[in-house]
Write a structure and sequence with these properties.
- Strands 1, 2, 3, 4, 5, 6, 7, 8 and 9 form a 9-stranded mixed β-sheet that branches.
- Helices cover 39% and strands 16% of the residues.
- With 335 residues, the chain is of the alpha/beta class.
- It folds into 2 domains: 13-120 and 251-303, D-Maltodextrin-Binding Protein, domain 2, CATH 3.40.190; 122-248 and 316-332, D-Maltodextrin-Binding Protein, domain 2 (3-Layer(aba) Sandwich), CATH 3.40.190.10.
- It is globular and about 60 Å long.
């Protein structure tokens, strides 16, 4: 059980806001391996981390409701769309940090320095090697009629789906993105359902022949037993898409300093710590993610996926396309 949950925390808002040498973290990252991040930061700085955890949208709404009295110092969440959602809700603030500017690539940070990405997950194509001899080599090819009845994907309400289509819009334009989305819908093997691991299970079960998932779900199944995947993982092949074009689409896990952070200096210190080599290695070793900082080694499970070219598109610009992406999903009937 994590140290502090949104529903059970015994720390009062007043005591949080007035604390010295503390940091109040609102996080939607629910990975036990992040414990090492928090304990090492405290050991290095003496700053105690108080955590409130929940779903991203709930935390953002909570920060909005708390307003200027919010005890939050940091919001951590996953996916570019949620980071942009927090910015648009006015619950983050711009910060100045030479460390973050130097360490985090420009395309992985907000144009106004309100959020920064600290780890990445490539969203790539997986396929049944027994049934697919010529897998799609890019995202555009997923709409090829030759893959009709073969594709599994998550729902349009999922942020990973929204951000991928938002990236297609940024790279190819809205008209092409709509045609692509319609083509993918036409190729569905079943109505969208489940999470990323379920898309991989669909390949093993034979429900579908081609699916999309973030890499860390597959790398996790390489590292440890994941029911319905690991035992038959040799059946699954993968493609880092668009290697001759824009490159593989990347999802971010990142964070920003809260708009009314009572411990702003500590918050900036924590953000800078997350960009350190030590923390970056934890993201990879503990949760099978790719570091955001260039040159940091990846874990064995992640390295098994091989080398690839990432899409260097500005993710701040991609995030702004999410409303257009949702409109397209609705128009093409992507459930």
């Amino acid at each position: 059980m994590l140290a502090a949950l949104a529903a059970t925390t015994a720390i009062s808002t007043g005591s949080l806001a007035q604390a010295e040498g503390e940091l109040n973290l609102y996080s939607s990252r629910h990975y036990d391996t992040d414990e090492r991040l928090y304990s090492d930061f405290t050991e290095q700085t003496g700053i105690t981390i108080n955590r409130i955890e929940g779903k991203a949208d709930e935390l953002i709404a909570r920060m909005e409701a708390e307003g200027a009295n919010s005890p939050a110092d940091i919001l951590l969440t996953v996916d570019t769309s949620r980071l942009e959602r927090a910015k648009n809700a006015g619950v983050l603030q711009s910060i100045e940090s030479a460390v973050l500017e130097e360490r985090i690539p420009a395309n992985l940070q907000d144009s106004d320095n309100q959020w920064f990405g600290f780890s990445q997950r490539a969203r790539i194509i997986f396929y049944d090697t027994a049934d697919v001899s010529e897998p799609p080599m890019d995202y555009v090819s997923l709409a090829d009629p030759k893959y009709k009845g073969m594709v599994c994907h998550r729902s349009s309400s999922n942020v990973y789906s929204q951000t991928l289509l938002a990236a297609v819009i940024e790279n190819h334009g809205e008209e092409a993105a709509k045609a692509w989305a319609q083509g993918v819908v036409d190729n569905f093997a079943r109505d969208p359902e489940g999470g990323d691991t379920d898309q991989l299970r669909g390949l093993v079960s034979g429900q579908c022949d081609i699916s999309i998932s973030n890499t860390y779900y597959f790398a996790r199944a390489l590292r440890k037993d994941v029911s319905g995947v690991t035992s038959d993982i040799e059946k699954i092949g993968w493609v880092f898409p668009a290697q001759e074009a824009e490159g593989a689409h990347m999802n971010l896990s990142g964070g920003g300093v809260a708009a009314h952070a009572p411990n702003k200096d500590n918050a900036v210190k924590f953000m800078e710590y997350l960009a350190s080599d030590q923390a970056q290695q934890y993201f990879s070793a503990g949760n099978d993610e790719f570091p955001a900082v260039e040159g940091v080694p990846v874990s064995e499970s992640v390295s098994k996926l091989g080398a690839y070219k990432a899409d260097a598109v500005d993710l701040s610009a991609v995030a702004k396309n999410v409303p257009a992406a949702q409109k397209i999903f609705n128009e093409v009937g992507w459930k």
